[in-house]
Amino acid sequence: MRPFKGSFLLLLLFISCSVGKKNLGEAITERDSLPVMSTLGVTTFVSDSGVVRYKIITEEWLIFDRKKPSYWSFEKGVYLEKFDSVFQVEASIKADTAYFYDKDKLWKLIGNVEIQNLKGESFDTELLYWNQNTGKVYSDKRIRIEQIDRIITGRGFESNQQMTDYKINNMEGIFYVDENSTPTDTIGQ
Length: 189
What we know:
Layout: H1 2-19, E1 37-48, E2 51-64, E3 71-74, E4 78-83, E5 89-95, E6 97-101, E7 106-117, E8 122-131, E9 136-146, E10 150-160, E11 166-176
Antiparallel strand pairs: 1-2, 2-3, 2-4, 3-6, 4-5, 5-7, 6-7, 7-8, 8-9, 9-10, 10-11
């Protein structure tokens, strides 16, 4: 009878160990689906050849270095300032979402994209590309440019990266603003 008690005890031990085991989800095996870096609450400066060129402020910054193509992700919004050689802000850019394709040095800015250039002009669009290699900024979406004396609207544009030399592909309208004139009330007359 002795072997029966030992077998029973072994069976009882085996069952008790397997009851406490938790079911876990599948492990992520695709390394490219995970960011190599995930950072929250970021304010950072980016340099090129030892000279600070950009300031980036974002709530969340993810870097996917194994994706094809590799990219940085700013899905909770981004604010970026571009500096000239004497650290003066040449342009500022704000967007709801942004992706930076690091190998191509291409920015894709999406949703409520707002740009301010050195001349004080404001640009608003829903999609914008900025190619740092060519120094070009462009979009095929609607653009609104607010200057000191007028507002220009159109569809599609391209510009230099300082946003000072630009052209609108399909001009929709130019609306002049005269700050000195006061609107007259013609209804009560």
